[in-house]
Amino acid sequence: MIIEIILQIIMIIIAITIVRTKNNLKLIILFSAFSLMAASLYFMYKAPDVALSEISIGSAIIPLIFIVAISKQKEFIVINHLKDDFLKYNGNDYIGKGYEILNDFCNHYDLKLKIFDSNENQIRGIFRKNNVDLIVDKCPNTNNYILKGKESSILMNKLEQITKHIDDITIIKVGENETVD
């Protein structure tokens, strides 16, 4: 009886810590620990089948899915339609005002910036439609730089806040059903 109460108190503490943590790796570890505690309680309350399910799904499969999903989110993919100094490839790396803004943005959010020029053969099919975070273009009428991204992306809201004081950059948020390139 005392062991069950101790496990329940530990689970409450872990649950509160899960809600408050910001580190994704710690979150996954805490989630697995919570699931193991729940499995132990199920076993103690004479439900070994539920305990086995909790161990296999809650402690192994779900954390693996989280790790895969989070690792996919560590990149910020940009398609560059420009041929000017705003976002220019100089042979080794990108340079320009646009690159500095995007690089600072990605460094702040611990993302890896990947830029693909629109003339590269790598941009086709599902990659172009689903995985692109931002498309950089230039308005022919105003010569403003246009940064197009998904309306549902939290990162687009953050990028909009960062660039709102820059006069020659316009953020366009595109709905999920629209094509942006």
From TrEMBL:
Look up the domain of life of the source: Bacteria
Q: Does the keyword Nucleus apply?
A: no
**Main localisation, per the record?**
membrane
Keywords carried by this UniProt record: Cell membrane, Membrane, Transmembrane, Transmembrane helix
As for membrane topology, the entry says: Multi-pass membrane protein
Transmembrane residue ranges: 6-21, 28-45, 51-70
UniProt subcellular location: Cell membrane
Annotated coiled-coil positions are none
Question: What residues does the MrpA C-terminal/MbhD domain cover?
Answer: 9-74
Q: What is this protein called?
A: DUF4040 domain-containing protein
